[in-house]
Design brief:
globular; 489 residues; 9 helices; alpha+beta; eight-stranded mixed sheet
Length: 489
């Protein structure tokens, strides 16, 4: 079993030849080369804009490579939630924005001949619990009012048990990594440059420009787009206080299966899809990173759920993080009084919202009216539900921060211990007679880290930063490693 995403084995990645050295300048700098950043780049390219892109690792190898690759507007019970937070018109705009994003992907694939295993399938929202049928029926009210076509169902193509569900046509699946690599090739053919293996540490305002400091040099830009899944800074925008992180567990098995894109209506969520005719992708056990710190137990429960219904061999096993907002709408737009643009908080639907963010941000930069910009604005109006959810989720994060500071050696740890060396908290992983030592504190907001025994990583339970056993940062918001001085090894 491979502890990595299936997408990473489906394409041979080619590194960019550009290397950032010393100083350079640009009109627009895009930080992050996942689906959001590259979609922004493509839209700016269509508008004739000049820009530079930087990526901490390789293009697409962040959260995009860990997603399930669904393109659908049928996203659980999202519309009923948005109506409760705001109103019907806001929910309708969100629905239309998802349809627009799906059309953009289809248009790009056809126009630029992107090979990404795109296929049209039906999407299903279902429940196997009688008690949850009423919740789906509430969601139906939105679809009826919005005149969205659907069918009521009492069985799924793969015979997974259900009591009730809805089927929607005209949705799709694709290989997200192949798609973003296709966008990369389009941008590389232009005069715009992509710099990989370039980590941004800070953004400083200098008059009408921004000085962006990286580990390879300095970039001066008039406008900056932060498309890093989770912003690496706290101020401006205060994203850590407006969002929380959910961790999900995913597997892919070698299986001949029917075409399907399905998700349960309520938690614990189960998500299913086919990949071509060869694989079946199954995800479950989503939870806030501030809860359920025993990650191996969550992986074990995922495997148990799968094995209860299927018996095909599992080839891939991985986890992913999603930035969740407190009002079920992403944050896409311009930071007030700045020329900084942010795209984050996609609430598990990064494939549509990542593409959508590219269109919205490019339109904002070019002063083009976008009908969806207002509902995703970083400065949108508050709702009572959003305030209550913010209090609840921030309280969980703060409680976890305190708990992990007090309890550092957990009962579920195997071959791991956390010790104090010269006044510094150090995590030690013992493997094959070797000791791998790292700092046990996340550089982002100083939370203590939890060891992920399955994927062999140190994970931050507060805001989702991840590090390998040698201390190298894998994903943010942290942009710094947790390596310690050699003398302490």
């Amino acid at each position: 079993m491979k502890n990595r995403s299936i997408w990473k084995d489906q394409i041979k990645l080619e590194r960019t030849k550009n290397i950032l050295t010393d100083k350079t300048s640009t009109d627009i700098l895009i930080i992050g080369c996942g689906i959001s950043g590259l979609s922004t780049g493509l839209e700016l390219l269509k508008q004739g804009k000049k820009f530079i892109m930087v990526e901490k690792k390789q293009v697409g190898m962040g959260i995009t490579a860990n997603s399930t690759g669904k393109l659908t507007f049928a996203q659980g019970l999202v519309y009923d939630k948005i109506i409760k937070n705001y109103d019907y018109m806001t929910a309708l705009k969100y629905y239309k924005s998802q349809k627009e994003a799906m059309k953009l992907v289809n248009d790009n694939i056809n126009e630029y001949h992107i090979d990404c295993d795109y296929e049209k399938v039906s999407s299903y929202i279902f429940t196997d619990n009688i008690k949850d049928i009423k919740k789906i029926e509430k969601e139906e009210k939105f679809y009826n009012r919005a005149r969205v076509k659907y069918h009521k169902i009492y069985s799924l193509p793969n015979n997974y048990p259900l009591k009730y569900g809805l089927e929607f046509e005209d949705t799709a699946l694709f290989n997200p990594l192949k798609y973003v690599c296709g966008l990369k090739k389009i941008i590389e053919k232009s005069d715009n440059k992509i710099f990989e293996n370039t980590t941004v540490h800070s953004i400083k305002k200098l008059g009408r420009k921004y000085k962006v400091i990286t580990d390879r040099g300095v970039i001066y830009a008039k406008k900056v787009v932060v498309a890093t899944h989770y912003p690496f800074f706290i101020i401006p925008s205060f994203i850590p206080f407006k969002t929380y992180i959910e961790k999900s567990y995913v597997l892919a098995s070698k299986m001949k299966c029917s075409k399907i894109s399905a998700i349960t209506s309520c938690k614990p969520t189960i998500s299913m899809r086919n990949y071509k005719d060869d694989y079946f992708i199954f995800a479950s056990n989503s939870h806030s990173t501030s809860t359920h710190l025993n990650i191996k137990k969550q992986f074990d429960e995922l495997l148990l759920k799968y094995n209860n219904h299927f018996n095909d061999e599992i080839e891939y096993l991985w986890s992913t993080h999603d930035v969740m907002t407190n009002d079920n709408l992403p944050y896409i737009g311009k930071v007030k009084n700045e020329q900084i643009y942010i795209a984050t908080g996609f609430n598990k639907w990064g494939m549509t919202n990542g593409v959508l963010s590219g269109k919205i941000i490019s339109d904002l930069i070019s002063n083009i009216y976008n009908p969806y910009a207002s509902i995703f604005s970083l400065n949108r109006k508050f709702s009572l539900m959003r305030i209550l959810n913010s209090i609840k989720n921030n309280s969980k994060t703060f409680a976890t921060l305190i708990f992990t500071k007090i309890i550092k050696n957990h009962k579920f740890y195997d071959r791991v211990e956390v010790v104090n060396i010269d006044g510094e908290s150090v995590g030690i992983y013992y493997y094959n007679g070797k000791e791998y030592r790292v700092k046990n504190t996340c550089p982002h907001m100083k939370c203590s880290l939890i060891f992920n025994e399955v994927e062999k990583t140190w994970d931050c339970p507060c805001h989702g930063s991840r590090f390998d056993i040698k201390g190298n940062v894998i994903s943010g918001p942290s942009t710094y490693s947790i390596k310690i001085d050699k003398k302490k090894n």
